[in-house]
Amino acid sequence: MARSLAGFLVLLLVVSICEAASLFQPVSDSHRSAALELFTPDHGSFKSLEETYEALRTFQIFGIEKKPDVTASACRSISETVGSSTSTSKDLFYALKANSIAECKIHETASKGIISSLNAAVSAASSLLDFYYSVGGLVLIKDQSSKDDIHLADAEGVFRSVKAFSQSDGRWRYSSSNPESSAFAAGIALETLAGIVSLASSELDQSLISTLKNDISKLFDSIEKYDDGTLYFDDKLVDGYEYQGPLSITSSVLRGLTAFAAVTTGNIDLPRDKILGLAKFFLGIGVPGDAKDFFYQIDALACLESNRQDIKFHLACRVSIPLILSLSSAVLSLTKKDSLKVRVTTVLGSNAPPLTVKLVGAFSSVSKDASLVESQELKFDQGSGLHILNDLLKSIDVGSYTFVFEVVLQEPEDEKVYVMGSQTKVPIFVTGLVKIENSEIAVLDSDLGSVESQNKLDLTAKNDVSLSANHLQKMRLSFQLTTPRGRAFRPHQAFLKLRHESKVEHIFVVGNSGKQFEIVLVKYLFFHGVNIFLDNFLGLVEKFFYLSGKYDMELTVGDAAMENSLLVAIGYIELDLPEAPEKAPRPPPQPVDPYSRYGPQAEITHIFRAPEKRPPQELSLAFLGLTILPLLGFFIGLLRLGVNMKNFPTKPIPATFAVLFHVGIGAVLLLYVFFWLKLDLFQTLKVLGFLGVFLVFVGHRILSHLAAASAKLKSA
Amino acid sequence: MAREKSSKDNAQALFHSLRSAYAATPVNLKIIDLYVGFAVFTALIQVVYMATVGSFPFNSFLSGVLSCVGTAVLAVCLRIQVNKENKEFKDLPPERAFADFVLCNLVLHLVIMNFLG
After folding, report:
1. Which domain holds residue A683?
2. For residue A633, is it within any domain?
3. Which helix (H) or strand (E) holds A283?
4. Does any domain span residue A626?
5. Where are the beta strands (DSSP E) in chain B?
6. Does the distance separating the beta carbons of A633 and B113 come in below 8 Å?
7. CA of B10, closest CA in chain A: separation in Å?
8. Domain CATH number, residue A555
9. Are the Cβ atoms of A620 and B38 closer than 8 angstroms?
10. How close A654 comes to chain B (CA, Å)?
């Protein structure tokens, strides 16, 4: 009987662990400083009244002092909007909201004008947002002005017209013409209806209120959830209006819910852990980076928080206040002998009512069956507000765990007001120093297994071992890891890196026993030890690209729970591998330093066409002489033929022409020599032009004279 | 035997007759023939030089050889035009042919000098 009960309890415990463990932190100082950064006014004023209101509300929640220039500019824009007759009900709504925090004085006539215009807006309202702004404005002006007699004329009628927008699934529509419904609109509607109830001069029909409570339950039925227990509202994408996003939708629903809860008596039937889930959703966001998101988050969390003083008065009406269990640090160190420190606060970080925290169980991530510790209570330290458990770590080893806490409120009345999850699961890391012992490296003969050379290693310092092996031998590196509690430790990462001189690297991984990689054969030889076998290099020769030579060895062992993860150089091994065959894969090209292209480039040596071999100068001169020979032969031949100058004209004019003719020809030839030596074609042609004309003239004279002379001779 | 002797005799007889016939040509034609022979020999010597040392620079070789060949050709043309036995150029005065010869040579040598490099 007892055994089955115990078994059932264990089963219950296990089932409850199905929800993932997660850590939520309440709002902290980092939120506060982020608020100051995000909500910075531009020269003291914000862009719109809506933003002014959001900034002021955020500062109010954090208790940040109101800056005078911000308040002054806010008051200016508020009075401007309030005094103007063309302000819409939306502008008035936001102006009054901002004013509820800034507390600027509104003139009597102005407030009268506001009231009348808002009343008119209520009567003329047709869509949900019209009702929201106008009713909301009236609620605000009622709080701010001294008048007590601000009432809605036909509260029930207005209530019914707003209620007309509701859908059967708990969502609301924005207007009668738009069929799309959303949860965001539901939140707005709830706020509006709460406002109507507070403005009503007489009690409203209770049936209306109860149908509204049903609608709220139906709305909460459509709540969505994540695995870690957070709950939120979301809408389908709506055309026409911008899709708001789960943060703003959930925030709007929560605002509406709390506003409604504040004005009604009696309980709203809401499962309390739904409120806790919503609180976790807002806390799980962390610190948003956008001002609007920040406002939504903080405003919603403020709805879930409250002062202790109010509780006595609104005990029955309030929405439950969630309490959050958080840890300052989720990592405990065995070497530093950390103690477990737990804090329980409200969402905004204020103190919780008196309570006790119990550690119900601690489950390791590896074996989730049995709890490693007994159920024990944490001691409450009044000064720091923390629940502390010392000496926890005596029985816990390094690794990752899930701790299960239970919170019990000390005063029974608080149970109705505060809501705490049944059990909170938190992921905890325990770290410590892991001992590395018996480390050695050896080269073995493959078949016999006999050790050829062996070196002891000290893995805490750099080693300088030098080994040599050929492809028929095995290398074995072995070491032993022990936790502080004396158990064998299996690290998350263990790599051996072999790097060749040419920077080609090979990395071998230690895997679990039974897993075999094609390259590395890994075995757990002993229960305690961790070994890496490089199975006789024969199989690995191709992986090494047949590169023989010196390989640097480096061992990396690391784990999140190890405080002394190591990366240590072991030494080098000289591998003698066979020659690469033709088709062997080449090692991959090493990555080139990408900045090397901006450095100096290689020197370019211009290779012109090699000059042709010239003949020796003597040979050329000899042939020059030979070329003159035929000319000499020509002259000799001429002499032998009996050449004479008898036909040269004797009379002076023809003689001069004859001489000039020869001189002209000589001049042209001389010109050609100069042309070859230094002149260019154009200069030559220019001179040749002149010479040519001269030569033609002279030549014509002399040759015609000669022709006439020979013709005379022939006829004679 | 007799045939060989007779062919040898024939060759000698042919050579002698050619020689005597050539001796009968006018002197101006002989001068032109001499000039042609001179040009051709010069060209030959240049070819032998090129064969010895290679054809670099080729343009120089070409211009040298072509100048010799060109002037030889022009001289042959002059010989044809001046030869009195040539009925075709009966009306052309030899001075005119000589003037053409001189002019063409000058043009040829301009081109040659340009190409010589």
Report:
1. 641-715
2. no
3. helix A272-284
4. no
5. none
6. no
7. 29
8. 2.70.50
9. no
10. 15
Q: Which one of A620, A634, A675 has the shortest CB-CB distance to B34?
A: A634
pLDDT at A309: 41
CB pairs under 8 A between A and B: 84
Query: In which residue are the tokens 């010989």 written?
Result: B79
Quick one: average pLDDT of A13-34?
A: 71
ipTM: 0.88
Residue corresponding to tokens 């009512």: A353
Which tens digit of pLDDT belongs to each residue from A319-368? 778 888 888 888 888 888 888 888 888 888 888 888 888 888 888 877 67
Of B35, B37, B93, the CB nearest to A707: B93
Instruction: Mark whether A460 and A588 lie in a shared domain.
Output: yes
* A641 interface with B at CB cutoff 8 Å: yes
Nearest CA in chain A to B30: A641
Option in B35, B45, B98 nearest A623 (CB): B45
- Mean pLDDT to the nearest integer, B44-48: 92
Residue A536's closest CA among A459, A463, A440, A452? A452
**Residue A110 within any structural domain of the chain:** yes
Number of domains composing chain A: 4
The answer to whether the CB of A471 falls within 8 A of the CB of A576 is yes
pLDDT digits (tens, 9 = 90+) for A58-113: 888 888 887 778 888 888 888 888 878 787 888 888 888 888 888 888 777 888 88
**In this structure, how many other beta carbons lie within 10 angstroms of the beta carbon of residue A14?**
12
Kindly report the nearest CA distance between residue B95 and chain A, in angstroms.
6
Non-local CB neighbours of A317 within 8 Å, separated by 6+ positions: A261, A262, A264, A265, A266, A267
A418 and A315 in one domain?
Answer: no
Alpha-carbon distance of A107 to A83, in angstroms, equals: 9
Please tell me which of the candidates A623, A676, A700 has its beta carbon nearest to residue B116.
A676
The C-alpha atoms of residue A178 and residue A505 are separated, in whole angstroms, by: 66
Q: How far apart are CA A198 and CA A190, in angstroms?
A: 12
Q: Where are the domains of chain B?
A: 2-116
Asked if residue A574 lies in contact with residue A550, where contact means CB atoms within 8 angstroms, the answer is: yes
CATH of the domain at A300: 1.50.10
- Contact yes or no for B98 and A619 at CB 8 A: no
Q: Which residues of A touch B48 (CB under 8 A)?
A: 623
